């Protein structure tokens, strides 16, 4: 029998994620039955959204909370098929699926097909690394691209502010927005990240939100206002965006990481949306699977010719997954946080 | 010389509008010069938005605050031309313009043309009353229609919640939405208003927000959730809408009357916009002047055949304008609040 392990949730964090919220348990893998494949996982994903599922009252409409004491489902993972009787998924095929944070997964092809973008999918790794499908060519790329799409941001020529810009999604949004011809203002939480955004990603202006009131930093970085805002933070960042927004600006509400470990407050100046004819569009990448092929084609070409960078914060070994999550939520990682199994 | 009077602001209300915030002063009208017309005003408008201009820090992007000690500009008004040398605006023509809360206005045609929808405009009063141009055929109708437009609500067939539904705009939104084939849920602040909405306007469900937590009343009235929300209230109403919204629901942010006389808080559950793929669109009718003709044609036809009602809360005499505003803000009026001069 395969030596297999999986993380499960022991207790929900209150408020901060620590290693003892989880336990790594041995799993007796069933032999794959008809319509099932056995995947040896090679890379698994660590995303801010996981924090929202580590509480009993996950937001309605979102993925359900992780149940206590059971392996965590619904986490993007890449692996190689070790056993299969499905002709579409032969042994040795690299795939992604949604049963992460474990060494091996027995995936039911039909059942997994209900998971939308996360369904079992064969990946072309002839030119791209397997783990790029957890980043720019996967859910991160789709979220970045869909966010630009929902605010009519794919045409270029405007000023866009991207917060959490050194994160997995934000760093893609910055680069794609530049490639599309926008003026890009980026913000992050450390001077090193700001330096990386300016020097390596080539954004037009950048600031650290720790350097003073966000609205003042934003005004200095975008003296002519912003037309688009890609929000990964919420809180004072969203209030600053409403304040500095030009008439008819559009805001993509992607996440609100500043609210995930405290009581959210809500933007006190939301009336500016009315007075300035602003649009706020909440969205999830998974609602825009129809854009996946287009996104992979465009971002794949930019990756291949070197005009798009994909920085990874790699943690080694399944045992490091909780630390990876805690580090990412605390702002100690840059780019896409992933675990190599 | 004409015996002419105008209201001006003596002090900004804190927090409630009272008569002594204003003073009615005699005005020495200049003789109209070239390109100017003299209008004897017959009806002037009383709108919730006036409250936002009765403070030193009017929201950016909105109309400027009313300056203290000067006649109030930018208030829709209907009147008859008494003197003119402009061939397009002959003596006796009924017009609207933006210089309200006074008995007479000398309007500079070219200057007024800068005011968008509020510019001097000749009105067809052969079939419609003059004051209907302050209600369904004017800014109120345009705001109602534009709000439905910005949330893709002009097609019908969905469930829409309309708050402040017994107000000038809300009562139009309810009726237009019904005529377009929506299921309409309405809320207001008194049992009489709720009765009127159900019995006279024919909405499908209605409740008073005073009868308990708004979110619970809304859930009972819309057990299958809402697809559209027309927000005139903000605060707990907007939070309830986010909570009860179906996936991909759209919210028209028209106003936030519950916030106008206190510190706004902002919706604490805005993350639901992300998790449920919701869109919030702030808008002002004045940004959609291009819809004015279409709106007047459609609403005019419905008014003419009796399928659209226009209820008016009429106050008599210019001296009553501050009382009319205070009554409207306190929820003591139904329909369009107007002053007959």
TrEMBL record, chains A, B:
Keywords: Oxidoreductase. InterPro entries: ADH-like_C, ADH_N_2, ER, GroES-like_sf, MDR_fam, NAD(P)-bd_dom_sf. This is NADP-dependent oxidoreductase. Residues 18-339 form the Enoyl reductase (ER) domain. It comes from Aeromicrobium alkaliterrae. The keyword Oxidoreductase applies. The keyword Chloroplast does not apply.
């Amino acid at each position: 029998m395969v030596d297999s392990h999986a993380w499960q949730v022991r207790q929900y964090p209150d408020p901060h994620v620590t290693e003892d919220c989880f336990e790594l348990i041995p799993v007796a893998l069933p032999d794959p039955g008809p319509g099932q494949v056995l995947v040896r996982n090679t890379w698994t994903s660590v995303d801010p959204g996981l924090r929202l599922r580590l509480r009993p009252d996950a937001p309605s409409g979102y993925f359900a909370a992780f149940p206590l004491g059971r392996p965590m489902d619904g986490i993007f993972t890449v692996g190689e098929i070790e056993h299969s009787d499905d002709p579409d998924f032969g042994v040795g095929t690299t795939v992604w699926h949604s049963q992460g944070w474990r060494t091996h997964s027995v995936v039911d092809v039909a059942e997994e097909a209900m998971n939308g973008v996360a369904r079992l999918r064969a990946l072309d790794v002839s030119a791209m690394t397997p783990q790029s499908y957890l980043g720019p060519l996967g859910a991160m790329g789709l979220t970045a691209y869909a966010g630009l799409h929902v605010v009519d941001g794919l045409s270029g020529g405007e000023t866009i502010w991207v917060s959490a810009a050194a994160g997995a999604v934000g760093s893609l949004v910055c680069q794609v927005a530049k490639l599309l011809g926008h003026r890009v203002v980026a913000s992050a939480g450390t001077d090193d990240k700001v330096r990386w955004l300016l020097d390596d990603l080539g954004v037009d202006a950048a600031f650290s939100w720790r350097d003073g009131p966000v609205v003042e930093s934003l005004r200095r970085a975008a003296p002519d206002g912003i037309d688009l805002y890609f929000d990964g933070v919420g809180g004072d960042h969203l209030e600053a965006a409403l304040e500095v927004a030009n008439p008819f600006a559009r805001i993509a509400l992607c996440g609100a990481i500043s609210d995930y470990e405290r009581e959210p407050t809500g933007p006190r100046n939301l009336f500016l949306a009315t007075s300035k004819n602003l649009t706020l569009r909440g969205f999830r990448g998974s609602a825009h699977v129809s854009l996946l092929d287009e996104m992979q084609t465009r971002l794949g070409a930019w990756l291949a010719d070197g005009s798009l960078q994909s920085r990874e914060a790699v943690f080694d070994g399944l045992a490091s997954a909780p630390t990876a999550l805690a580090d990412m939520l605390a702002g100690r990682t840059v780019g896409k946080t992933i675990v190599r199994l």
